[in-house]
Specification:
mainly alpha; two-stranded parallel sheet; about 5% strand; rod-shaped
């Protein structure tokens, strides 16, 4: 009796589970290329242009400081030559040597400031790129979710994260048109790969290294 009751309960539970599974809606999977959507989103080009302006300002300031440093390097060399000149009296050579020593200290201080400025500017640009990327990706994801729901999808996935997906499930081109449907008429076209726009990974373009003044008695900072 107990065995029969257990069998009946087991079959009942199995039937209920099977019924529950059959009641679940069929999975409808769609895929998109998130990298392409990010790069071709009209706001990516707009925000990238703003970042390029900030980056150029930082580069211009860096070059201005380096130019001033090179000028100090030239002055240091002149003072060093004067301190060793046979044409000058000992008093004048002593003064030139003292001035050269002060100038050397100033050059070292300026070198430190330039390296700090370059590092801080690079960090700031990377932070701006990361912030821009997060905001734009959030906008894109919300729009893709809206499109997916309208197409009756149960899931929309980035095809770049899948081992394989049938191309017939891909809606990247349709999604691209959907996320750009509100593009203002005056907005510039999306950035192309040759324009070096920030990528979906949020990496800042490399900035040129600050030139270092090399003068006698002063080793270049690394």
């Amino acid at each position: 009796m107990n065995r029969m009751l257990k069998s009946i309960l087991t079959l009942t539970a199995f039937g209920a589970a099977a019924l529950g599974l059959s009641a679940q809606p069929a999975v409808k999977l769609l895929t998109v290329d998130m990298g392409k959507l990010f790069e071709s989103y009209y706001k990516t080009a707009t925000e990238s242009a703003k970042l390029k302006v900030d980056q150029q300002k930082a580069q211009d300031e860096l070059e201005r400081r380096v130019k001033e440093l090179n000028g100090l390097g030239d002055q240091y060399k002149e003072l060093l030559e004067q301190s060793k000149s046979a044409m000058l009296k000992d008093e004048a050579k002593t003064k030139a040597e003292a001035d050269a020593s002060k100038m050397l200290d100033e050059i070292r201080r300026r070198q430190g400031e330039i390296q700090k400025y370059q590092g801080d500017a690079g960090k700031l640009i990377n932070q701006q790129i990361s912030s821009m990327r997060a905001v734009l990706l959030d906008e894109i994801l919300k729009k893709i979710a809206e499109l997916g729901k309208s197409k009756g999808a149960t899931m929309v996935m980035d095809r770049n994260s899948l081992v394989y997906a049938d191309p017939t499930y891909d809606i990247t081109e349709e999604a691209l048109a959907f996320i750009n449907k509100d593009r203002p008429a005056t907005t510039a076209p999306a950035a192309t790969p040759t324009e070096e726009a920030p990528t979906a990974a949020g990496t800042a373009p490399a900035t040129s290294a600050a030139p270092v003044v090399t003068v006698p008695g002063l080793a270049p900072k690394k």
